[in-house]
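During the first year of the project, the team set up a workflow for recording each protein of interest as an amino acid sequence followed immediately by a discrete structure-token representation. This format lets reviewers and collaborators read both layers of information side by side without switching files. As required by the reporting guidelines, we include two representative entries from the current panel. The first entry is reproduced here exactly as it appears in our internal archive.
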Amino acid sequence: MSVIAWLVLGLLAGAMAKVVLPGHDPGGLMGTTVIGIAGAFLGG
């Protein structure tokens, strides 16, 4: 996959994680999204 696809996949994973596990976390939506993107890069 291309880098753009990994970014989109990570963004979706971060957003879905926020929907599944709502509540207060230190990073907020942006932190969750960044973690999702990092996980997508590590997984790919």
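The second entry, processed by the same pipeline in the following quarter, appears below.
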Amino acid sequence: MALEKNQTGIASEFYVAAELSRLGYDVTITFGNTKSIDLLVHKDDNVYAVQVKGIQQTKSICWNLNKAKFKGKNLILVLVNLHIDNLDAKPEFFVLRQSEALALFIDTPKEGENRTYLDYKRLKTMNIYQNRWDVFSTTENAVL
């Protein structure tokens, strides 16, 4: 089974929105094809801008990101592995501050920061970012 790229993105956004709602945050999903903010998250007078990137399964290898579009914003990046190859497995979430994401994503030789990637297995073995929802509890990560 495989999802289309658009389905992967939508499913990932909704899973992140559901998880944050479950944790007590108010979440607004933004719509559109060219948006750079997928979710607006609100709690305790703070608003956080979130960009979500999803992969379908472990063998998808990596998430892709255009770092040039990501700079100059105070975003939180949530990376999702949907695990569609194992319907009994729950999606995995990795939560990174913008500065962490920019440092971890690797530029490609041909396109530089316009086409970067972060390996799923590398991120998972770091054992730092998985389910790190406390990023949403500090005002330094808020946009408002």
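For the second entry, the following points were noted during internal review. The chain has a mean pLDDT of 89. The chain has one domain: 5-141. Both points are flagged for discussion at the upcoming steering committee meeting.
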